[in-house]
């Protein structure tokens, strides 16, 4: 949860200019919106209102309040063990791909339900469709292989009366990414993905342990942001997942104007560039994102001529 906790009481100038979370958290407004947050709010060492970002319950309740106050999501929850996403960072991805879509629209960000976005691995939290629909009015398809996550995401959609804007689809094959999700003749403006970054559960535990030590906490391998195995790691890690995604994207070149994915490790990029060149991508771009001390990148590519 580092990108949400870093500089929680300071101006987050490294976030996208349209990101609603660049300023300090307005805990008074958040508590008014969701009174349950009150029990987690404390005075920090600067005598400012904050929460304990190492407490998973506090983080989840803050997320509920943020989603309700800024995005009108009245009903949101995640089952125990599933990934609890940092809202500011997730919003940044949405705003940056909006800029990509603007490039082919005379510099104007396209809004409304004519814009269709595919979120690969939507997860139980359904966070990208919720933010993207509220911010820009886009329609989303969210794909997910975990049947429990599918049920959870559908419940969020139904509880907030968003079935007309967000369609959750089960990916029945762990070997496929777009195959079985994109229907014949279906068109998307852009796809997005927050892939599993690690190559094994052992790697996840080791990095989590180092994180807690850096925070001065002795919590072993516990994750304050949660996450099931398929959300955190896959065989071969990020490079192998991205290679599969890029290869399969070529097969759906006419179905999507743009493809995109978060990239956690800078060392993953050279291999991606080489693969996309081999596949014949007509345009490739890398967008840097930074929240707190953490840096991510968005890799974007297309096989179409974008006006």
UniProtKB/TrEMBL annotation:
<comment type="similarity">
    <text>Belongs to the methyltransferase superfamily. METTL16/RlmF family.</text>
</comment>
<keyword id="KW-0949">S-adenosyl-L-methionine</keyword>
<comment type="function">
    <text>Specifically methylates the adenine in position 1618 of 23S rRNA.</text>
</comment>
<dbReference type="InterPro" id="IPR010286">
    <property type="entry name" value="METTL16/RlmF"/>
</dbReference>
<keyword id="KW-0698">rRNA processing</keyword>
<keyword id="KW-0808">Transferase</keyword>
<dbReference type="GO" id="GO:0052907">
    <property type="term" value="F:23S rRNA (adenine(1618)-N(6))-methyltransferase activity"/>
</dbReference>
<dbReference type="InterPro" id="IPR016909">
    <property type="entry name" value="rRNA_lsu_MeTfrase_F"/>
</dbReference>
<dbReference type="InterPro" id="IPR029063">
    <property type="entry name" value="SAM-dependent_MTases_sf"/>
</dbReference>
<protein>
    <recommendedName>
        <fullName>Ribosomal RNA large subunit methyltransferase F</fullName>
        <ecNumber>2.1.1.181</ecNumber>
    </recommendedName>
</protein>
<keyword id="KW-0489">Methyltransferase</keyword>
<dbReference type="Pfam" id="PF05971">
    <property type="entry name" value="Methyltransf_10"/>
</dbReference>
<keyword id="KW-0963">Cytoplasm</keyword>
């Amino acid at each position: 949860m580092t990108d949400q906790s870093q500089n929680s009481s300071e101006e987050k100038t490294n976030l996208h200019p349209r990101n609603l979370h660049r300023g300090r958290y307005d805990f008074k407004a958040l508590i008014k919106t969701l009174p349950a947050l009150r029990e987690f709010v404390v005075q920090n060492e600067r005598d400012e209102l904050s929460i304990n970002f190492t407490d998973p319950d506090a983080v989840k309740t803050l997320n509920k309040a943020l989603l309700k106050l800024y995005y009108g999501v009245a009903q949101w929850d995640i089952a125990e063990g599933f990934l609890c996403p940092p809202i500011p960072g997730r919003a940044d991805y949405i705003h940056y791909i909006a800029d990509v879509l603007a490039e082919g629209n005379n510099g104007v960000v396209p809004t409304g339900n004519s814009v269709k976005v595919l979120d690969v691995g939507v997860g139980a939290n359904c966070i990208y469709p919720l933010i993207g629909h509220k911010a820009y009015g886009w329609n989303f398809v969210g794909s997910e292989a975990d049947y429990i996550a599918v049920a959870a995401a559908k419940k969020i959609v139904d509880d907030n009366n968003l079935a007309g804007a967000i369609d959750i689809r089960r990916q029945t094959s762990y070997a496929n990414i777009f195959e079985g999700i994109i229907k014949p003749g279906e068109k998307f403006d852009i796809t997005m993905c927050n892939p599993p970054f690690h190559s094994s559960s052992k790697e996840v535990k080791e990095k989590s342990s180092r994180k807690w030590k850096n925070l001065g906490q002795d919590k072993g391998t516990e994750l304050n942001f949660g996450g099931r195995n398929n959300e955190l790691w896959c065989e071969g890690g990020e490079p192998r997942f991205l290679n599969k995604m890029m290869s399969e994207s070529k097969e759906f070149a006419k179905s999507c104007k743009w493809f995109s994915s978060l990239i956690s490790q800078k060392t993953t990029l050279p291999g991606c560039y080489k693969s996309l060149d081999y596949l014949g991508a007509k345009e490739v771009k890398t967008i840097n994102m930074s929240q707190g001390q953490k840096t991510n990148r968005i890799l974007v590519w297309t096989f179409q001529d974008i006006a």
